[in-house]
């Protein structure tokens, strides 16, 4: 992927549209498949390395319409099957092609409350776009209809035109529901339950609501103003948000119902407990979990040099251990914090990396150095306990493991040293044990995730859960799907209760 000039991309789309628009209704499938996929305008890599502004700049209206005309409007709509919240994808894309952007947003919001978020951060290439007939016909998933980019376009159009539209709210029922956490699953539950006329209070441990959308995903991928607008929409709907409130410490979960009178509780606390590699040297100065590093940089604005009091270690040579989106976010944040070299170390090949292809490409453009089939086995330090280097081992791929990816096998005697002064461990997260430790009778699995039934109900009556606290570290749209299911169950339970 190379830098894409905005004016050139727009002019190309304008020229295409002159030909396509008059005959849109008569375009055959073979004609639509021949329409080139529209590239996303982006900031120049040399410029964006030193700012935290959003990298992807979004489609121009002409690009959105051309991209929408690539959709075959399949009768069986396989893309919908790939969407965790089952958006009417052909419907909203058809509206874009017809220049009806307001209608497209209305269709999306029937199923998704966060289109501006999901259009930016969801891995469409492994969900809706993976099922796209166009991509399959061309035998290239990267040539599928760019569903996520189209979703983002109309969500941004809506926000710029008249702000986020609020759903209608039914008369007050006198019932009240507690929502623990304020990430994507919790936002979905709060909105869906409030729509039915129930009072909703969101309890957030941090000083600002938004969950992983705020503290985990960097500004250059998801601008905070977008998250704040969604939170403000909840407040306008009448949802109360209480920050600096740690359920399990400030108040036990069961006390919310027994003492405070909540009729139901939803737990959406995510997976915020970082995993470490349990290797020598992880306690040295200069070693961080990706959670801490990104929270300092994002939520606490450590990137704003001279404008925020948050301290953060600004390494000159930084190693990031891992291959997922969090690893990419950490590496690209380190670049923006002034690192001279950022090395991303992953024990499989690029093919097996779970990170989005687009994020990997952006990281490469920004100068991140990738080490494949390598992994750290020791972190070394000086007499003052400060990181000086890492000892790595080389690997080769063996038979597939339980994830379906080929298992990395150590190459004995292949050790080598890389000088480093900072290491960020980005190998995944687990659920925080606080709520399960302070809630008798709450069933969890061996990984500490809360166990729920098909309705999102936990082992405790009137207590529901969803998102990463149930799934483990997953995607925004999957968390929203969990939240939507739990909210429907809560609403059904309250409607059936005397």
Strand order of the largest sheet: 3-2-1-4-16
The shape, in one word, is globular
Q: Tell me the span between the first and last alpha carbons.
A: 59 Å
Question: Radius of gyration over alpha carbons?
Answer: 23 Å
Largest sheet report? 5 strands, parallel
What structural class should be given to the helix and strand makeup? alpha/beta
Count of alpha and pi helical runs:
20
Instruction: Write down the domain tally.
Output: 3
Keywords:
498 residues, 36% helix, Fumarate Reductase Iron-sulfur Protein, Chain B, domain 2, 3 domains, FAD/NAD(P)-binding domain
Give a structural overview.
The protein has 498 residues and is α/β, with parallel strands linked by helices. It folds into 3 domains: 157 residues, Alpha-helical ferredoxin (Fumarate Reductase Iron-sulfur Protein, Chain B, domain 2, Orthogonal Bundle), CATH 1.10.1060.10; 163 residues, FAD/NAD(P)-binding domain (3-Layer(bba) Sandwich), CATH 3.50.50; 155 residues, FAD/NAD(P)-binding domain (3-Layer(bba) Sandwich). 36% of the residues lie in helices and 15% in strands. It has 20 helices and 16 strands. The protein has a 5-stranded parallel β-sheet. The chain has a 5-stranded parallel β-sheet with strand order 6-14-7-8-9. β7, α16 and β8 form a beta-alpha-beta unit. α1 crosses α4, α4 packs antiparallel against α10 and α6 packs across α10. The model has no long low-confidence stretch (mean pLDDT 93).
